[in-house]
Task: structure prediction
Amino acid sequence: MTIVNYDPRLVKTKNPYPKGPNDWKRFFSFNTDAKVIGIQYIVTALFFLLIGGLLGMLIRGELITPPSDLFDPTVYNGLYTMHGTIMLFLFLFPILSGLTNLLVPPMIGAPDMAFPKLNALAFWLVPVFSIILLLSFFVPGGPASSGWWSYPPISIQNPLGKIINGEMLWIIAISLSGISSIIGAVNFVTTIIRMRAPGMGFFKMPIFIWTVLAAQLLQLLGLPALTGGAIMLFFDLTFGTSFFRVEGGGDPVLFQHFFWFYSHPAVYVMVLPVFGIFSELFPVYSRKPLFGYKFVAIASFGITILSLVVWVHHMFYTGTPMWMRNLFMFTTMLIAVPTGVKVFAWIATLWGGNIRLSTPMLFCLGGLFNFIFGGITGVMLATVPVDIHVGNTYFVVAHFHYIIFNTIAFGIFAAIYHWFPKFTGKMFYEGLGKIHFTLTFIGATLNWLPLHWAGLLGMPRRVASYDPEFAIWNVLASIGAFILGVASIPFILNMVSSWVRGKSAPPNPWKAIGLEWLLPSPPPHENFEEDIPTVLNEPYCYGLDKPFVEDEKFYVEKSLKKH
Amino acid sequence: MVSKNQTLTLNHKPGHIKHDGHNMTGFIIFLCSESIIFFAFFVGYSVLKISAPVWYPSGINGIDVKMPLINTVILVSSSFVIYFAEKYLHKKNLWGFRIVWFITMIMGSYFVYGQYVEWSELTFSLQSGAFGGMFYLLTGFHGLHVITGILLMGLMLYRSFLPNNYKGGEMGVESVSLFWHFVDVIWLLLFGLIYLWQ
Ligand code: HEM
Ligand SMILES: [Cu+2]
Result:
């Protein structure tokens, strides 16, 4: 194994927080420090992962037997609507914002985000809209029950005639979540564009930064369309307008266009940072530079652009004209190209590497494996005839869970473990981490792999009862779901106990390359404070004969300030 | 040493980061994003209009252009006026700035008033089919932006009277004036879409 490319002289030894990260009160305060906000986001999001997971287990509990015996169908509709909404808007988006907050400033050598106050505002909107969303369990008629996609006409019916109803609270919560994300996106993009350390040109940014930039640009370009759609939906529901009401000359399919124009790119908002995480971690744990760094960076932008022009593939079976179907089938297939570039680069990075199977790497490998599988089913779904056949069946559910949980959540877990020592100053327990990974992998596979078959055989989604011929697949899936529930125990145990009394972490426990690893663990308030480094090299120069360009100069050079 | 000079010029002193440049970048990014909401509404309007068998609510053959045309002229000229206000500020002519700035505010307020008069004379409502909803949604959402713009201008005017201000105040003025141009361009598109394309 090669020596690591960082200059030990740069590492400060003093612990910046004498009471350290265990001073938990900081994390419950209004605070404009991106690191505190990042951890606030992550902890909040993990809490909602548990809530969403609980709802998921209730759904699987209902589906373990064919008849609808546990809940009546309306309650069931509420359950899956809230499950999907919570998982997306209260777990995945916030946790990714959290990771981005933690990682972006130290990785680019910035002291903080560009707009610290807006940053705090974006975070504190999360508890606000979460409470609004959860309150909907207690209003007459129960929570929204028209699915997380909220298609009219179902979503604009208000049988109870009450002003305050679950659907309305849902729309308000989603719009607030949109506002929070837009504020966040403006902040992230500005930070990345304007606050990079000297010398860090675009092609010296770590891939994670590239993917965050690409993902946040997508938020900025796509999210307003959903917000516009949500405003119109709100008017239809509450003030009796007819934007989406056929009787009044409106068009329900218009809503689907608004919705998917954002919600398709939204999947890339979530998956791009995970691609970034893979690209950061594979080099570290296989001691090789990232294969094709520039191609991977550019591919992120290829994905961004293409993902804005494929949304109609979610509407193949809603009477879309044939020319449109073919056009969007084509663009969807094209997105496989930049994605393929990335997958190829990761595999080439791993090839012949000196692989260390520690917990973060296990999650990455598991995530990559599942992503390849989910990508294949995605291409299948993009072919119009296949989609007409299996759209609205459990095949779609299986596909997107393979991506959304088995890839994205895996990547998130990998990131949490990988950077845990950096931001808490403590090492986690490797054994518990491995137990967590094993249970998660088994649970996730058991949960969603069988559903592909159920879907191919024609089991419809969004219904509480099903034909007994699908029973076997559902029993397996439900067992998988409960295993996933159990998997959260070693995870929580690990996080809490190692944060409280884990071993102190050195500045760079994984011998990784990257500006954040030059900082002490945990990093001081303004990261590099006075010593903003100058970046001389591309990232990921592991194991090269001559890792340092500019004759033996270090990866970064300590800046001479002392103004 | 390659990087020494570079370093000296690029480094921020911690705690003293200049946020001015960030503000403008952030604001421009925000405006790009906001224009997409309008864009979504415009697309919605066009799609509904093209595919509608009956577009205007019964009893209406179209909407009157006269009143909004006056409004358009006022708003477009205010975009020039605000430009001169900015010029005055750059020339450090504080009173010139305040007066011209205030004139912009009056022009904006007149626009809002004109829209109020127009709305109160209309014979269709929010519930009058897809057109009614779209009309009020678009003009109302734009109107909210005009009002926001006027309030922001008021804030800048107030700040111009604070002692020791207007060293850093230009930044806010520039952003508000950019916002005003934005509102203006959106109006022109909206005017074409709703009033000219009948
Ligand atoms: C990369 C990350 C991806 C994520 C996070 C993701 C997520 C999702 C989600 C959530 C849905 C379900 C939408 C619903 O609720 O109806 C879905 C459906 C779909 N996905 Fe993906 N997906 C990804 C990749 C892909 C790829 C690479 C392709 C094709 C090349 C693809 C093609 C499709 C198609 C065609 C559907 C629509 C199926 C239908 O509703 O009939 N996806 N995906
Ligand atoms: Cu899609």
